[in-house]
Q: What sequence folds into this?
């Protein structure tokens, strides 16, 4: 078959390639940090040798770096896929996972828990997730028209909700004590330095499940991009597809934001990067964006960890500094693809 | 592409007193009776907001009729699943703008969506069907080009190719010639008529272009304010007084000497004796 | 046959290593405490290696004479000067977990006046004992010193430090007896204008220095004030910490129409204190003395 027709073989090939790159990046990230640990020892320790590293180096490797890398991979994948999905759902190439207010709802939940549930560390991600879930529901009901999701209305509903929630957040932050304020600031910037109190196992299960759901409706998304009436006449259940994508993408965002705060630019830019490299067919875009998003965030976080060692930057600062110029470039470059301005 | 076997001589599409009212605007389409046979081209004409697109939407099943029924090969359209509908009814309509670049072949392959199984990967057979659709619309040479780079006429033919890839029996077209110059308009409709005649498509066409309808349609229905006010062959429908009343403008209707089909012509000011302003 | 034995030995060794790795804390004799933030802490009886996550804590440890056991400090631990030569584990807000772990501490000390809850949770999760301080008053600081003395097995040094501080505080209190209390605004930050609330140790220090803080009614730690509020409160003095930038800005504000009508600024009743006033540590007493002298110069003539 000709090049422009996507086959499962091509998807597998590209994802295999990306997976390989990802593994290399992970190894690199494992060997880098405030404490130097030689790479060959790391490999031996990973292979099961109990003597390759000292107990404290093992602690650092397995309890600090590995969970953090895992978290970066999951959050990066979730944000990338959510961004790609929203771009199709809202028919807007500039959509990112936060445009529908999910992160503001999560932030509100997190700040609530910081202010009122002092002792319990796990309360913050749970409260953040609940806040996000409530926002997802509210925006859905606000953004409906004629019983189904209307992209334009949804976008407006999301922006208005996000703005309202931000105001409430600023109001609440007034009542936070000094140290919680610092915590809130980090959360708002996006930060991976706190290991998720929710087990990584559960988190990966949920994230992969949600990504799989979006992947399953990939070809529907392709047609949806051509326009809703067109998709409908070509056999797509438009209403159902929109709802599934909305829920799955919002859940992915909620999961990511609950454990890491609002890390910016990943959900917006990685889908475009993947489109540039591999084309815009969603059956490839979704898995490729998951893998690329994971890699990009891992790189950013690794940079955040080492660039001013032993201090650390919040990863959101790195993605913003690198992402903003890329974003501006994307906005300004001569449009050779797409009709819309 | 062989047409699905149907009742010989029976109607493919039939609207039996189908009607609908738009709740928001209050626009009401009065019960419409209409039938399209395989091989026939039926045109819906009328001024803006006369209900032409509404009839088309009832025919495609995207709107549900409030009264009467809409039948496809004697089966109610409302009872068909979305996939089944996509395999039997193809719609060519006003295109939404494309957000991301896509090449012609994958674009036309979208027409095969209703036939995909499992995880939705196109088979080589699907690709062959898409290529045949490109050939039928004489766009095969554009297969690897981005759709965004095509001219208006090429683009419209590619959209038609996508509809053909659906291997449907009924072809519904909503203002397909809207942004095309006259050469491409004629080209497209000639293509459509050819598809009807040679492949057995039943074609229902909504158009503003009275003369194109006159030339290419076997039957025409004239709509005015939600009602069918005349139906029949173009010669029967294109009656001067009726047209003037419906379109609220002064016209002449002539018969083309060679084809025998009517032509609608604007009445110019000069015939009335109007003079250009001097100076 | 021997091959089988070896592999069993390997498995046993691996299991043992993993057991040790999983619970390194079991190696020593442990005790339980509740820290000042109400957390349950399990820490070893003998503490040989300490990591401090705040400058105030570092100062306390040096003052207690246990600085030889200090294996990790923050980048901002600058007093006494010897502290700067200790290994840094990063910032107060976001220290490096790796560096902390690499220092192999028996105990990490943190404070609510500077460290994030998330940092504490992360260190906890690594199985490293962390004791948190929560200084809400000068008395709290004194009690912290006593607690640290007990935890680190230097009760005599702690006692000496504490009683030294208490007698100096008492001396100030005696001199201030019966004196009227000037009303002060403690300027933590100028733009936006932020002060200290009643639940902070700074507020308590102000009180002990014979002042009455105009933000005494505010429950937040760092209340923000409007200029209107400042004019309404009309403090007798403005109190700031030494910072050339802050002082310059304040001087520039004298020409501002609104700031210019703040009586304390107009009459140049601005008191500059050592930054120690912001550290809940041994030098808070010096800061209190400094402020008391500035507010009540008459009773401190000696």
A:
């Amino acid at each position: 078959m000709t090049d422009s027709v996507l086959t499962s073989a091509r998807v597998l090939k590209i994802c295999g390639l990306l997976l390989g790159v990802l593994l290399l990046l992970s190894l690199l990230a494992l060997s880098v940090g405030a404490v130097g640990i030689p790479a060959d020892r790391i490999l031996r320790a990973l292979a099961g040798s109990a003597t390759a590293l000292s107990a404290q180096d093992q602690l650092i490797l397995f309890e600090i770096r590995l969970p953090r890398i895992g978290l970066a991979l999951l959050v990066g994948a979730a944000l990338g896929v959510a961004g790609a999905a929203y771009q199709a759902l809202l028919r807007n190439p500039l959509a990112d996972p936060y445009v529908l207010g999910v992160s503001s709802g999560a932030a509100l939940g997190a700040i609530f828990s910081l202010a009122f549930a002092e002792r319990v560390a796990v309360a913050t991600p749970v409260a953040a997730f609940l806040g996000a879930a409530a926002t997802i529901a509210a925006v859905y009901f606000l953004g409906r028209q004629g019983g189904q999701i209307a992209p334009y209305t949804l976008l407006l509903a999301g922006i208005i909700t996000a703005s309202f929630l931000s105001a409430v957040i600023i109001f609440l932050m007034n009542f936070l004590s000094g140290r919680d304020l610092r915590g809130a600031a980090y959360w708002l910037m996006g930060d991976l330095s706190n290991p998720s109190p929710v087990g990584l196992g559960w988190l990966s299960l949920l994230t992969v499940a949600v990504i799989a759901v979006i992947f399953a409706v990939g070809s529907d998304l392709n047609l949806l991009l051509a326009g809703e009436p067109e998709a409908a006449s070509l056999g797509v259940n438009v209403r159902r597809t929109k709802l599934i994508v909305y829920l799955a993408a919002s859940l992915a965002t909620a999961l990511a934001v609950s454990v890491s705060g609002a890390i910016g630019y990943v959900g917006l830019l990685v889908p475009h990067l993947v489109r540039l490299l591999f084309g815009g067919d969603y059956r490839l875009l979704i898995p490729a964006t998951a893998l690329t998003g994971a890699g990009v965030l891992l790189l950013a976080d690794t940079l955040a960890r080492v660039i001013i060692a032993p201090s650390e930057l919040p990863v959101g600062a790195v993605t913003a500094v690198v992402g903003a110029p890329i974003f501006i470039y994307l906005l300004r470059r001569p449009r050779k693809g797409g009709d819309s301005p | 592409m062989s047409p699905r076997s149907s009742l010989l001589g029976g109607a493919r599409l039939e609207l039996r007193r189908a009607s609908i009212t738009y709740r928001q605007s209050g626009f009401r389409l009065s019960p419409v009776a209409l039938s399209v046979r395989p091989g026939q081209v039926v045109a819906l004409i009328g001024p803006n907001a006369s209900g032409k697109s509404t009839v088309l939407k009832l025919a495609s099943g995207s709107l549900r009729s409030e009264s009467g029924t809409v039948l496809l090969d004697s089966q109610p359209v409302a009872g068909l699943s979305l996939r089944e509908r996509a395999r039997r009814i193809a719609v060519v309509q006003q295109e939404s703008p494309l957000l991301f670049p896509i090449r012609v072949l994958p674009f036309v392959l979208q027409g095969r969506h209703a036939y995909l199984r499992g995880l939705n990967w196109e088979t080589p057979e699907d690709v062959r069907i898409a290529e045949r659709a490109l050939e039928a619309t004489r766009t095969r040479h554009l297969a690897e080009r981005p759709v965004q780079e095509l001219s208006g006429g090429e683009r419209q033919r590619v959209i038609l190719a996508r509809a053909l890839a659906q291997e449907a029996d009924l072809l519904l077209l909503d203002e397909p010639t809207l942004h095309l110059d006259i050469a491409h308009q004629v080209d497209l409709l000639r293509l459509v008529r050819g598809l009807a005649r040679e492949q057995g498509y039943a074609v229902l066409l909504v158009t503003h272009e009275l003369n194109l309808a006159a030339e290419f349609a076997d039957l025409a229905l004239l709509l005015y304010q939600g009602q069918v006010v005349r139906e029949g062959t173009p010669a029967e429908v294109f009656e001067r007084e009726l047209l003037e009343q419906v379109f609220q403008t002064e016209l002449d209707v002539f018969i083309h000497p060679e084809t025998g089909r009517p032509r609608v012509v604007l009445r110019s000011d000069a015939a009335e004796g109007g003079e250009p302003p001097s100076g | 046959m021997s091959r089988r034995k070896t592999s069993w030995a390997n498995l046993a060794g691996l299991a043992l290593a993993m057991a040790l790795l999983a619970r390194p804390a079991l190696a020593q004799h442990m005790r339980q405490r509740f820290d000042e933030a109400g957390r349950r802490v399990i820490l070893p009886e003998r503490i040989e290696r300490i990591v401090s996550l705040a400058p105030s804590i570092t100062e306390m440890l040096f003052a207690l004479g246990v600085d030889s056991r200090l294996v990790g400090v923050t980048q901002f631990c600058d007093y006494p000067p010897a502290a700067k030569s200790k290994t840094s584990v990063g910032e107060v807000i976001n220290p490096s977990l790796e560096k902390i772990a690499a220092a192999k501490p028996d105990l990490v000390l943190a404070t609510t006046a500077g460290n994030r809850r998330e940092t504490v949770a992360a260190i906890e999760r690594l199985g490293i004992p962390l004791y948190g301080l929560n200084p809400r008053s000068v008395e709290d600081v004194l009690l912290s010193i006593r607690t640290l003395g007990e935890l680190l097995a230097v009760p005599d040094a702690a006692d000496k430090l504490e009683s030294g501080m208490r007698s100096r505080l008492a001396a100030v209190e005696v001199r201030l007896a019966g004196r009227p209390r000037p009303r002060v605004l403690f300027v933590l930050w100028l733009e936006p204008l932020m002060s200290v609330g009643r639940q902070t140790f700074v507020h308590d220090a102000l009180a002990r220095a014979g002042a009455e803080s105009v933000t005494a009614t505010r429950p937040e730690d760092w209340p923000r004030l409007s200029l209107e509020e400042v004019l309404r409160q009309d403090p007798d003095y403005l109190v700031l910490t030494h910072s050339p930038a802050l002082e310059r800005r304040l001087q520039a504000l004298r020409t501002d129409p609104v700031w210019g009508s703040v009586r304390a600024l107009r009459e140049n009743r601005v008191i500059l204190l050592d930054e120690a006033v912001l550290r809940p540590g041994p030098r808070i007493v010096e800061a209190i003395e400094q402020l008391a002298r500035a507010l009540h110069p008459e009773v401190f003539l000696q």
Remarks:
- Residues 55-89 of chain A form the longest helix (35 residues).
- Residues 191 and 314 of chain A are 5 Å apart (CA to CA).
